[in-house]
Design goal:
Two copies of one chain form a homodimer.
Chain A: H1 19-38, H2 41-48, H3 62-85, H4 92-109, H5 111-118, H6 128-150, H7 161-179, H8 193-207
Helix pairs in contact in A: 1-2, 1-3, 1-5, 3-4, 3-5, 3-6, 4-5, 4-6, 4-7, 4-8, 6-7, 7-8
The structure holds a DNA duplex (30 and 30 nucleotides).
Keywords (chains A, B): DNA-binding, Transcription, Transcription regulation
Region (Disordered) (chains A, B): 211-237
Domain HTH tetR-type (chains A, B): 17-77
DNA sequence: AACTCATGTGAATGGTTTTTACATGAGCAC
DNA sequence: GTGCTCATGTAAAAACCATTCACATGAGTT
């Protein structure tokens, strides 16, 4: 049952056996703990139980390790967004909102990945593998926007899907960066990041001519009430 | 004999005379050059022509210097946004868009400040002066949103101004972070960051019920043309 | 002129990055 | 099994940075 010295740490011989993976995991933990800037190469080596020079057998330098993490992050991000999109089921608009929530959930649940992906100051364009992975993640949002754009009601101008995707991505990224994480940079928030994003997306879609009110336009429950907006969806009192 | 200061500075006595300011300026240049992460305390000292220990007479540590820069950045940011808002002249909506463009212009023209403010990983809440400065900058956007919210057409639900401000800020910040800077993280962009933000804001405002089309609704130049959206505002062919 | 104290220096400590020469042992040929 | 080879790990060292401490300087004050 013991295939490699993968499991436990019985007695690490001279060779680690799986150092590259161990370094990635160690770095991930350290970034989550002390931020992308505070993470050090030597610390990762110490975490993995090897000398400070060992990592250089697997990564050219600290930046390459960071880039590997960012790339893996984009791959997981793509998977998460793809699953949330679920090819637009059960309906395009609600699947689209699910993608938005998945975006925020990823930023919150995987701060280390998110940090490496967006806040590590890595030059994105010099690493083709990295920028390709990033592009694939974005293409999920873009594909969803294409489907949404195709649903534009008749008589309404059809927006460019790429522009829609960039808007939604920007708002998601802005909310995640400014308000999305645990306790950092938190301001007086009247609502959760998720609700903020959902309301923003609904308002935006309404601005494009989509009908987004899930209540019937003439709500029998509020015949004389004030007009309602998408931001009321969760605040029914 | 070797000059004590590598640069031609008239005052080269034992005391610098204005070291704190010189360090701030030096750090600003270094951050612009090598990013917030790459900037080193010793480098700033060298730039100012003093020993590596001298900066400790003015800043507790590297983070405090970074925080000082971030604070000054928020102050300049506030001034820039306030000037752009110009108390809502000549009309609220166009002044609001001017604020958005000013946001992007600041991120582009002052990457060092922007980096220190938003990308340096500083704990915002532990420094009261810093978070207050950040709050004051945000309050400009918030005040503009208040004025905008007050203009909600009759019969349309009035959105919470704070929510509007958070949405606009998020989109601005997202665009600035993802697409706003010189050559970093640039993707296939169908339009400039400024136009992207302007279109996004107009669509968002339309979603809130604001009339935003600057063309007359029945445009005589396009009597049989396709329907138009805010994204067409700049693309008149 | 003498005193004081903010401000700057030099040196020392301990950590990080990265390179270089060397050590180990896993996989493979035989 | 024996012996070869090479990927992988180590130790040592140079260069750099953050931080501290004892000490030096000189500007402002008395």
């Amino acid at each position: 049952m013991s295939w490699r010295k993968d499991h436990r740490r019985p007695e690490r011989g001279y060779h680690h056996g799986n150092l590259k993976e161990a370094l990635l995991q160690a770095a991930l933990g350290l970034i989550a703990e002390k931020g992308a800037a505070g993470f050090t190469f030597a610390d990762a080596a110490r975490s993995a139980g090897v000398s400070p020079a060992a990592p250089y057998r697997h990564f050219r330098d600290r930046d390459e390790l960071l880039a590997s993490i960012a790339q893996r992050g984009f791959e997981q991000f793509e998977a998460v967004l793809t699953r949330a999109w679920d090819d637009g089921r059960p309906d395009t608009v609600s699947a689209f909102e699910r993608v938005g929530r998945a975006y925020l959930a990823f930023a919150r649940d995987e701060p280390a990945y998110y940090s490496a992906m967006f806040e590590s100051g890595l030059p994105t364009d010099v690493n083709p593998m990295l920028s390709a992975a990033s592009e694939r993640a974005f293409s999920v949002i873009r594909a969803a926007a294409e489907r949404l754009a195709a649903l534009t009601p008749p008589g309404v101008a059809r927006p460019p899907a790429l522009m829609m995707a960039l808007h939604i991505w920007s708002m998601s990224h802005g909310i995640a960066s400014l308000f999305g994480r645990g306790d950092a940079a938190r301001r007086k928030m009247p609502m959760s990041a998720e609700d903020l994003l959902e309301a923003g997306v609904l308002i935006y879609l309404r601005g494009l001519g989509f009908p987004t009110d899930r209540r019937s336009p003439e709500d029998p429950n509020a015949p004389t009430g004030r007009p309602r907006g998408p931001w009321d969806q969760k605040s029914a009192t």
